[in-house]
């Protein structure tokens, strides 16, 4: 009898819990943006006969690889995501939601399927055929450089294989700047090259990449001791937001600034709209949930940085992902103009941005370079 009462009690608790969550789902106001996860949430799918028949309506509700309306707006979602992540740690699972919980508070993205590296290199080779030289920098993945901090039960990162492929199959006029050895050496010295709670490199990592690039391209890097370092606490980045490891301590975000560059002008261009600013840094973002856009205001189709005081009359076009945002301010020391192109949003000709006085750099983080499909728009 007691056993039967216990079973009935469990069923009653389960039904009550389900009823409460269902009611909360319909009662709690829906948000467009999750500050915890730093992303826009799925919208309610359009009701139409076509969507019903094709299955798009159901898939948009239930979600999949890109999320869905119901899981995105599930009551107390952040709590349950975090609970699931830490429960997985307790039972011995080394990763949750696509992230490893590593030593020293690092949250590191698991290696994705590296299925676009060869194709993206071919696209760059084809583009480079119209120019004397094109430079390519693919930043090592955090998991590859920080492998000593990862759990033993993990998937290996294929960075070495990717670098070997790039070196072997690149066109003769594609200059590959391989950061592998420099990053491994600097990591062994204890330099924090990547954020613990974010997938980007730190300003220290970006500066190291900048000096390696300068060495390859015959440029003189600005000295580190001439830069002013400003530190900002409580930085929670993308890996923190997406992993569910919400008990992790925050990072410190650093800005390394050459204060002598006081005449720099930044043009942000989206379509026909152009906005001009007098700084490469946007401190208002430091008060927001996502602080990383403090560098050049984050992702835009086209960003122009002009340095009229430069001794050089050359320009640099960077086809990039967001790894370029904290490295471009270093490169402004060496160029009269730096143009950043994001192919996720920019669909016009990159070639038209370049002339005989322009250097060209492709700059991507390893994970993006090997999975990104937008280089197909390169022209």
Distance between the termini: 76 Å
Biggest β-sheet description: 8 strands, mixed
What does the overall shape look like?
Answer: globular
**Taking Cα atoms only, what radius of gyration do you get, to the nearest Å?**
24 Å
Description of the molecule:
There is one protein chain. It is built from 13 helices and 15 strands. The relative contact order is 0.12. By secondary structure, the chain is an alpha/beta fold. Helix 6 (117-128) runs parallel beside helix 8 (159-169). The strands form four sheets. An eight-stranded mixed beta sheet has the order 7-6-15-13-14-12-10-11. A three-stranded antiparallel beta sheet has the order 3-4-5.
What secondary-structure arrangement, pairings included, does this model have?
Elements: H1 2-27, E1 33-34, E2 39-40, H2 49-54, H3 56-62, H4 69-72, H5 77-90, E3 95-96, E4 99-101, E5 107-109, H6 117-128, E6 134-139, H7 142-145, H8 159-169, E7 174-177, H9 180-188, H10 203-217, E8 228-235, H11 238-243, E9 251-257, E10 265-270, E11 273-277, E12 302-306, E13 315-320, H12 328-331, E14 337-341, E15 358-365, H13 366-369
Parallel strand pairs: 6-7, 6-15, 13-14, 13-15
Antiparallel strand pairs: 1-2, 3-4, 4-5, 8-9, 10-11, 10-12, 12-14
Helix pairs in contact: 6-8
